[in-house]
Amino acid sequence: MTTGERDAGNPATSRGSAQGAGAPTGVTAGGDASAPAGLTAPTGTPRANRIPAAQSGIPSASAPARPPLTVPRTVWPGAAARSHAATAGITGQKLAAATPPRPAARAALGDYSPIQLLGSTAVLGVFALALVGIVVLLARFVLAIGPGREFLAAFPGEYPLPESAPVGLPAWLNWSHFLNSFFLLLIIRTGWQVRREKRPAAFWSPRNNKKRRISLALWFHQALDILWIANGVVFVVLLFVTGQWMRIVPTSWEVLPNALSAALQYASLDWPTENGWVNYNSLQQLSYFAITFVAAPLAIISGVRLSGVWPKNADKLNRLYPVEWARKVHFPTMLFFVAFIVVHVALVLATGALRNLNHMYAARGSVDPEAFTGDPTGLLIFAASLVVMAAAWVAARPAVLVPIARLFGEVKQR
Questions:
Q1: pLDDT in tens, 100-138
Q2: Which three-class secondary structure string do you get for 45-96?
Q3: pLDDT in tens, 331-390
Q4: CA–CA separation, 402 vs 202, rounded Å?
Q5: Is 138 helix (H, G, I), strand (E, B) or coil?
Q6: Which one, of 374, 323, 328, lies nearest residue 353 by Cα?
Q7: CB-hemisphere CA count at 13 Å for 41?
């Protein structure tokens, strides 16, 4: 609708149009068209600030009328358009008509009903099961044909370790494994809390630097990081001192085809024959190597960059290692740890739970893979460790953490 069409049905406008050549009702030259009829807008606006009608983007009285839209609006004025004047000769004023809000780009989970969420989950579950079924069928097909059988015969899934490699898992490795699981669980919990927390319940400051202040959750996260790193250093040192490194560090290029063979056997649901007390299969070996010597260092290096330990005034160092790189590495590394834990626990329980738990928690095993398959010792220790982890998970709250944090600094609560 043009200015002339709006004025045609307004008696006040008709009377005002006789006062000024084409000026809006009750507005002098340079006045405000949004002012009520009969009121005069300030006349002190500088002439240089006035926007000509041709540049305002608003139809003038002489412009032809546009037909109304017959479809829903899909385009809205941008920020620049909203900052321009509403009509010709009007300066420093915003559009009188409110700009319609843009539709939300993405809907939150709260916008869906429980039935919709349940239905979406069911559909995704069906697709996931279908995908798993396709993978299983393909793996079985590959291992059933001639080349697949020949490949499986040549590469059964593991290769012989060096003659000097030790047999069995010592007690120190069991303890290190438990502490690694314990610290890593709480690190993931506190890391997710730091990422999602908007109003921390308490803040911690070191005694020698009261100006530095971090949330209590971040302090606990970094304290756990230190304990986790210390446990990892002891673990790696003992690995190389005792020769246990040969069990998780590849010593032959045969690890690659054997890892592929083990993956095909897992995918076909025909588990590879193994005895972790003597030797891991090649896929396990590559996984343990990656988690120990790749993922853990990446988590440490990126975590140090994000922590207060990193020097803030080292401009050259900060340019060489931007904080954005650390953020892009740290969170995906945590997701890798979560995925590894889920798959690792599932396979431990699915490929001989009692035997595997005896190896990992009770340091009990034999070269005979059928030994200790009915011994519940490892299972009982594993259950006790789960109780300890659950208790620590529940206790990781301000009522428990504040007194501990005050031993190492100042704590202020809301």
A1: 455 444 455 567 788 888 888 899 999 999 999 999 999
A2: CCHHHCCCHHHHCCCCCCCCCCCCCCCCCCCCCCHHHHHCCCCCCCCCCCCC
A3: 999 999 999 999 999 999 988 899 999 999 999 998 888 888 889 999 999 999 999 999
A4: 8
A5: helix
A6: 374
A7: 21
